[in-house]
């Protein structure tokens, strides 16, 4: 792999590791964390315990000012809520305060070097007035995502970031990756995150890239959670301009090569989508020789998912299974090279703010495309119901992405994918809310709820199958035809009249290939 695509990790030691522990039941975890990172070639500093807010910030500042090597790791085990850490004196430190200490301006010793943050927080009710109004400086932000979610892998990720997104970009904050696990409990028997880190890193860090390791850690965490039960774990991965591959490359890697890994599987809800192996085809090919739209940036672009599964209005039925749909879409986009974020059940105003903030992200200037996906009940073909029961017209979704509103995405392809659940017959609308939208492709999957209240379930499977099997060499418009073929296939065992795809190209100047990332 070319050096300009990979962060340098050749120094000895690889870097310093700072561990902060505020959890009484995690003393053994801290010992295991020291073993893990020592074996990976890091210098692990003496762990800190029960720091007050000012002591926490001072400790972080002192660590940032140390002479650093090729990378740095910060680990925090303590209390937290949402996007905040809670120190020993019950004061809140937002993630933005935490990471700001390590941006290129405040920490020049680590400028251009990878910085990894592992945060294991136990839920607490402690909040500050500032925490309600603070904006999170992340590439991926999620609202209580489930264990199967990665969002951001970033997924770039997340994870599940997995993730509701609300951002204020700070250009100096870059080369950061956050693995965040929120625990609905107090880790009374230690943290399952430590066990997942121990099993995955010691076995696979010798040759696996960080995003791959993150997925394996989250999968291991899910398996441990299912086996043990009890406290619930909500993981996600967030990245801030983490633009290169990162390998730990521990010193003993050449002496002890691990066995070849087995292909991972997507575990689907029983009786929902057919069980199948996730294997997005990825090919090595010259830069776009067959596409008029470039889509070779790393990542290809950002993907926003807004999912509505709960409604405050009694007239609108909840659709709890849609959480799974959002997770599945997030994993699909992540595996195709997009940094995915999920926003769950926003009100009308929150949804509009989320979309506007997503369109204003500075990363769009450096990336080649964008994906916007909304899943929920629809009032008509141009309107979704929001979490508060208020309608969200698609004109409010499109307008932030016009050439005049979003210069960073001007002349770049934009995919709008809407899964619209139809509860009653729609009136035919003559209006076109996408008049000023250019270089965009609008795809609707319309699913009609039957008289018995059953929701058809094959449309998203058909869409996923088309992208997994054909996105590596098939442009977007033909992908929709592939999805329609899967939907109409007798093997799907569905009444095709219950679901159908609609496509609306918007002033496209060429073909758009999603081009999954190279392995």
UniProtKB/TrEMBL annotation:
GO biological process: apoptotic process; proteolysis
Molecular functions per Gene Ontology: cysteine-type endopeptidase activity
Domain of life: Eukaryota
Entries under InterPro entries matching the protein: Caspase-like_dom_sf, Pept_C14, Pept_C14_caspase, Pept_C14_p20, Pept_C14A
Domain Caspase family p20 residue range list: 1-122, 299-425
UniProt family annotation: Belongs to the peptidase C14A family.
Keywords of the record: Apoptosis, Hydrolase, Protease
Name of this chain's protein: Caspase family p20 domain-containing protein
Keyword Hydrolase found: yes
């Amino acid at each position: 792999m070319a050096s300009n695509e990979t962060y340098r990790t050749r120094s000895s030691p690889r870097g310093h590791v700072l561990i902060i522990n505020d959890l009484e039941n995690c003393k053994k975890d801290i010992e295991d964390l020291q073993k893990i990172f020592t074996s990976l070639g890091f210098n692990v500093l003496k762990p800190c315990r029960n720091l007050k807010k000012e002591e926490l910030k001072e400790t972080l500042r002192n660590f940032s000012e140390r002479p650093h090597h090729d990378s740095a790791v910060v680990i925090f085990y303590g209390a937290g809520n949402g996007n905040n850490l809670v120190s020993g004196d019950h004061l809140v430190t937002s993630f933005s305060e935490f990471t700001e200490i390590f941006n290129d301006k405040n920490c020049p010793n680590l400028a251009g070097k990878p910085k990894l943050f592992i945060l294991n927080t136990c839920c607490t009710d402690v909040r500050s007035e500032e925490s309600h109004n603070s904006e999170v400086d992340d590439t991926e932000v999620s609202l209580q995502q489930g264990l199967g979610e990665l969002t951001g892998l970033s997924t770039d990720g997340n994870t599940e970031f997995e993730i509701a997104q609300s951002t204020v970009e700070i250009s100096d904050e870059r080369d950061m990756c956050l693995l965040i696990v929120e625990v609905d409990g107090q880790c009374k028997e230690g943290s399952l995150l430590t066990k997942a880190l121990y099993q995955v890193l010691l076995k696979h860090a010798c040759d696996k890239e960080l995003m791959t390791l993150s997925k394996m850690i989250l999968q291991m965490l899910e398996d441990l959670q299912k086996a043990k039960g009890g406290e619930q774990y909500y993981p996600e991965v967030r990245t801030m301009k983490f633009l290169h591959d990162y390998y730990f490359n521990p010193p003993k890697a050449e002496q002890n090569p691990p066995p070849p890994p087995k292909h991972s599987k997507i575990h689907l809800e029983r009786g929902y989508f057919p069980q199948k192996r996730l294997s997005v085809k990825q090919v090595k090919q010259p830069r776009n020789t067959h596409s008029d739209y470039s889509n070779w940036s790393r990542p290809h672009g950002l993907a926003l998912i807004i999912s509505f599964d709960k409604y405050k209005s009694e007239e609108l039925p909840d659709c709890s299974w849609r959480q799974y749909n959002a997770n599945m879409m997030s994993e699909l986009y992540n595996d195709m090279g997009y940094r995915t974020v999920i926003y769950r059940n926003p009100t009308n105003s929150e949804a509009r703010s989320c979309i506007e903030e997503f369109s204003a992200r500075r990363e769009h200037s450096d990336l080649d495309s964008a994906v916007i996906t909304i899943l929920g009940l629809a009032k008509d073909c141009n309107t979704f119901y929001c979490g508060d029961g208020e309608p969200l017209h698609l004109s409010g979704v499109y307008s932030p992405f016009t050439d005049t509103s979003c210069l960073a995405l001007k002349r770049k392809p934009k995919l709008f994918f809407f899964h619209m659940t139809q509860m009653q017959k729609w009136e035919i609308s003559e209006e076109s809310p996408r008049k000023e939208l250019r270089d965009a492709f609008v795809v609707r999957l319309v699913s009609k709820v039957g008289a018995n209240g059953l929701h058809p379930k094959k449309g998203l499977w058909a869409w996923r199958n088309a992208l997994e099997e054909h996105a590596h060499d098939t442009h977007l418009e033909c992908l929709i035809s592939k999805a329609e073929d899967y939907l109409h296939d007798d093997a799907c065992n569905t009444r095709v009249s219950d679901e159908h795809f609609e496509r609306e190209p918007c002033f496209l100047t060429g073909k758009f290939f999603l081009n999954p990332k190279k392995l």
